[in-house]
User: What shape does this take?
Amino acid sequence: MNIEKLHLIYFSATGTTERIINTMQDALKDIPLHSKCNLLLKKPHQQIFSSSELVVLAMPVYSGRIPQNIKDEIKTLKGDNTPTILICTYGNRAFEDALVELQDDIENNGFIAISAAAFIAQHSIFPKVAINRPDEKDLEMVKRFAVESMQCYPSNHQRLTIQGNRPYRTIKSVPLIPRTSSSCNNCEICVKQCPANAIQKGNPKHTDQSKCIACAHCISVCPQKAKHFGGLLYWLASKKFSKSFHVPQQPYMVYLK
Assistant: This one.
């Protein structure tokens, strides 16, 4: 592949997907970085990506799917037979239909998925599951995935076959939302950065359960450490989830042949 520009587009609420993206950037350092965009914080530039540019698109998995609140942002991306690397991160349970959904969204817009991977990341709701992942071994596999992805774009290609189902699984609502302790000083950083607009301006202690996607970004960015998951329902769910998904999963990687 004669690639002239690299674009990194991702959604990272707690920093784990961003670690994967940063490792990809290091591994692809020979390609000039042209843009880097966390969709949680800003919108991507509306442009058409050419066949001489490489796009790396990385998303966390929520309920077996990609974050639904940014699907409109992904649809603004337009390609022209643009080679694309797809990545999802998941909390050691399953990535289910996230990768095939991402593939469909971008290939409908002129991109060509040349490789896809699912890497394990510390669970955002139950952080004792897959704690400290991606670890160094994971990141070494990310580097290998980046290198091998650059070797798999033949001129006469078939569509990349990715694990997942069509139609996609039905998204289930998450009954667990972050709580707010008395240490909240109403700085409203969480209000400004909530990707689902679920935290009320003027009352950051209130989170709209119908909007919250339980991404835990408010927990991650709160300078007072006032946001947290808790309560009896959370404790019971955490105990059950940790027991069911304590066995470490390994990354999934597939390449265009």
Q: What stands out?
A: Residues 5-168+249-255 form a domain with the Rossmann fold fold (CATH 3.40.50.360). The two ends are 14 Å apart (CA to CA). The first helix runs from residue 16 to 27.
